[in-house]
Amino acid sequence: MSVADLLVRAPRIGLDGLGDADLQQRVDVKYLVPLSALAALAGPLAASHALLSVDGLTSFGYRSSYVDTPDLACFHAHRQGRRLRWKARTRLYADSGRCRFEVKLKTGRGDTDKHSVLVDAAEHGTLPAAGAALLEQVLAEHYRLPAPELLLPSLLVEHQRSTLVAADGSGRTTVDSDLRFVVPSGAGARLADDLVLVETKSAGGRSRADLLLRAAGLRPVSVSKYSCGLALTDPSLPDHPWRRLLQQHFHPTPTTLQTTAAAA
After folding, report:
1. How many Cβ atoms from other residues are within 10 Å of residue 16's Cβ?
2. 8 Å CB contact between 92 and 99
3. For 169, left (φ over 0), alpha (ψ -120 to 50), or beta?
4. What is the pLDDT of residue 253?
5. Is the per-residue pLDDT at 3 higher than 60?
6. What is the spatial distance between Cα 100 and Cα 121, in angstroms, rounded to a whole number?
7. Among 14, 32, 164, 228, who pairs with 49 as Cys (CB 3.0-4.6 Å)?
8. For 146-190, what is each residue's pLDDT tens digit?
9. Residue 218's closest CA among 164, 264, 175?
């Protein structure tokens, strides 16, 4: 059964109903959730959340192309747990054709601060001029750092996403399935088919969804799609501190994404 089928009982909400739930500054909490556990939580989640629906769709294809320095400074900063770190990507919303360049910062408090600009879909998998300007501005303003002189495509990520919005406006919860990674060399990996990545996004990290997930015995995991994707697909990179999680829940695969490394 698909994630959309499991969440079918939730009331619907459109993009215009997101309001403050579309948090650009927030605390992100991630959980690896078995589909059987999500099925058990579907009723309680439906009672307190609405399911995002656009043009009749409740599951949406996401394709994200990350950029990094040649020595993968962003990857290593995250692996080392540096207080001030960032990631940058173009994200293509496959169903609508919209594309954004996004910069995600970590604040000294551990919050996520996201900045974005619309770019042309043809610029997916590149470093658009508008994206480079945004990155330079954001790093100077928030970290007092210059942007790197050279950034290259480093990882492609593809997944299906369903989004739940809390009825009280306190946050939103995304459910990512069919999560896959590929690096420019063509090496790939994917999340196990019986798992989904659930991420809560709220002002304080204790949303209604967090309470439901923890009451069901599920615990947060420290997992970054970007960092884990690189560690899974490049054996020369260190995989600490995610080694056990990666070995248990992810699998190598020769399958490439629809947006191939060559297109980047």
Report:
1. 6
2. yes
3. left
4. 84
5. yes
6. 8
7. 164
8. 999 999 999 999 999 999 999 987 789 999 999 999 999 889 999
9. 175
Q: Specify the residue for token string 């962003």.
A: 74
Q: What is the 3-state secondary structure (H, E, C) of the chain?
A: CCHHHHCCCCCEECHHHCHHHCCCEEEEEEEEEEHHHHHHHHHHHHHHEEEECECCECCEEEEEEEEECCCCHHHHHHHCCCCCEEEEEEEEECCCCEEEEEEEEECCCCCEEEEEEEECHHHCCCCCHHHHHHHHHHHHHHHCCCCCCCCEEEEEEEEEEEEEEECCCCEEEEEEEEEEEECCCCCEEEECCCEEEEEEEECCCCCHHHHHHHHCCCCCCCCCHHHHHHHHHCCCCCCCCCHHHHHHHEEEECCCCCCCHHHC
pLDDT value of residue 18:
74
Contact of 165 with 49, CB cutoff 8 Å: yes
Of 63, 56, 62, 50, give the one whose Cα is nearest residue 21.
50
Q: How far apart are CA 250 and CA 189, in angstroms?
A: 7
Question: The pTM is what?
Answer: 0.91
Report the first-to-last Cα separation within the chain, whole angstroms.
Answer: 33
Pairing of strands 195-202, 112-119: unpaired
CB contact at 8 A, 53 and 203: no
Q: How many CB atoms lie within 10 A of CB 88?
A: 26
